[in-house]
């Protein structure tokens, strides 16, 4: 397979920009674990792929260049959707695998936290980092995850428990008759879903019911606050990542010393590109004694408990992957505080650009696996995605449901 690799994942000898000017690129001396495993399995790396929000040009959607390919694994999704690559690696820290995959009509997996080793990644925070595959089909996605999954001694945060045997392709053809699949109610109108998104999501539910699944509704009360929780945690975690020269604190993982040297050099000249985050952190620390950061972590744990409770009443959960269709390009930049603190009806028009964060980031906080599969076409003629969520290490069941939906709607 011809595979593209997001430009914050290391390929030995190839500059890794992380979306920054080439002059500041790191040239890795070793492959990321995920890349190493793909190469060992016979894949060919054909590209480093662009990241939305980078210094490079906005990635346009190959299905219609008037639209964005998503954030931030946009180049990975565009490479697959255009046929330039058979598959690609994205990195999902708030939805950045599932979001571009959904907007480009593709399949994208954010696996259980820790299932895919993250060594070799330009990390934001070890507790939300997920490297994941973007493909055209569920079967291809399952095959790639089989190759990527499993512990590695270099990983910063090894899994608390090893996964079940990663034979995901063998689970694809199992029936979904009798499965209890629950819609998260707060992921619909409360998350700002448009009418055509709700229509296509409803059509997908009908297909699942026709295949024998029992579709019900559950509540996750903290859902609509999840991005505010994520943002508070990200401010503290990402400034700590910069303070620690890109390594993070308190882990047993291997250290890439060349990256440490590059980050140290940038700090010496004051060029770390996160001034606003540092100012925000210091304001919260001096004005509120840092208490909001602690509250955000506690709310994160409560959100995980609520998702676990919902899964106690169902085998799988489903939501729209994005409340809206793709944003048009060029579009104005989005205000994260605006997105995190205002109800949908009060958000700016730029809300559409970042709307998928609201339906994707909860599972970066909780660590549950989540897969997006195409689920129809909106009034704009662009794809809509269905997000399928399962229990920890429940990828087998997620792929089975995704493959059943894909087969029934092909």
From TrEMBL:
Alphabetized Pfam families for the sequence: Amidase (PF01425)
InterPro entries in alphabetical order: Amidase (IPR000120), Amidase_CS (IPR020556), Amidase_dom (IPR023631), AS_sf (IPR036928)
Ranges where the Amidase domain occurs: 3-397
Molecular functions (GO terms): catalytic activity
Protein name: Amidase domain-containing protein
Source organism (scientific name): Jiangella anatolica
């Amino acid at each position: 397979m011809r595979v593209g690799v997001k430009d914050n994942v290391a390929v030995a000898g190839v500059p890794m920009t992380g979306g920054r000017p080439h002059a500041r690129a790191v040239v890795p001396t070793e492959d990321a674990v995920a890349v190493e495993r793909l190469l060992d399995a016979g894949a060919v790396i054909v590209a480093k792929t662009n990241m939305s929000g980078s210094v490079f040009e906005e990635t346009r959607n190959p299905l219609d260049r008037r639209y964005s390919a998503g954030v931030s694994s946009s180049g990975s999704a565009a490479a697959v959707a255009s046929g330039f690559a058979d598959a690609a690696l994205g990195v999902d820290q708030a939805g950045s695998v599932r979001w571009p995959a959904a907007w480009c009509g593709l399949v994208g997996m954010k696996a259980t936290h820790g299932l895919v080793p993250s060594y070799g990644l330009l990390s934001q925070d070890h507790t939300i980092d997920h490297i994941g595959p973007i493909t055209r089909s569920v079967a291809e996605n399952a095959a790639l995850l089989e190759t990527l999954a499993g512990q590695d001694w270099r990983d910063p945060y090894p899994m608390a428990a090893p996964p079940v045997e990663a034979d995901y392709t063998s689970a694809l053809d199992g029936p979904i008759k009798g499965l209890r699949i629950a819609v998260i109610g707060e992921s619909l109108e409360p998350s700002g879903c448009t009418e055509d998104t709700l229509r296509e999501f409803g059509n997908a539910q009908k297909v699942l019911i026709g295949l024998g699944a029992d579709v019900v509704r559950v509540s996750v009360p903290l859902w609509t606050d999840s991005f505010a929780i994520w943002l508070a945690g990200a401010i503290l975690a990402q400034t700590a990542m910069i303070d620690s020269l890109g390594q993070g604190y308190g882990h047993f993982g291997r250290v890439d010393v060349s990256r440490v040297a590059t980050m140290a050099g940038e700090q010496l000249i004051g060029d770390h590109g996160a001034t606003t985050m540092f100012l925000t952190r210091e304001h919260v620390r001096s004005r509120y004694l840092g208490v909001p950061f602690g509250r955000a972590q506690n709310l994160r744990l409560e959100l995980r408990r609520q998702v676990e409770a919902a899964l106690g009443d169902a085998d799988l959960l489903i939501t729209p992957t994005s409340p809206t269709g793709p944003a048009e390009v060029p579009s104005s930049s989005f205000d994260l505080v605006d997105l995190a603190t205002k109800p949908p009806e009060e958000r700016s028009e730029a809300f559409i650009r970042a709307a998928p964060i609201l339906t994707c980031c909860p599972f970066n906080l909780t660590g549950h696996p989540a897969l997006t599969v195409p689920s129809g076409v909106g009034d704009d003629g662009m794809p809509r995605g269905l997000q399928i969520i399962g229990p920890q290490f429940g990828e087998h069941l997620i792929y089975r449901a995704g493959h059943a939906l894909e087969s029934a709607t092909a």
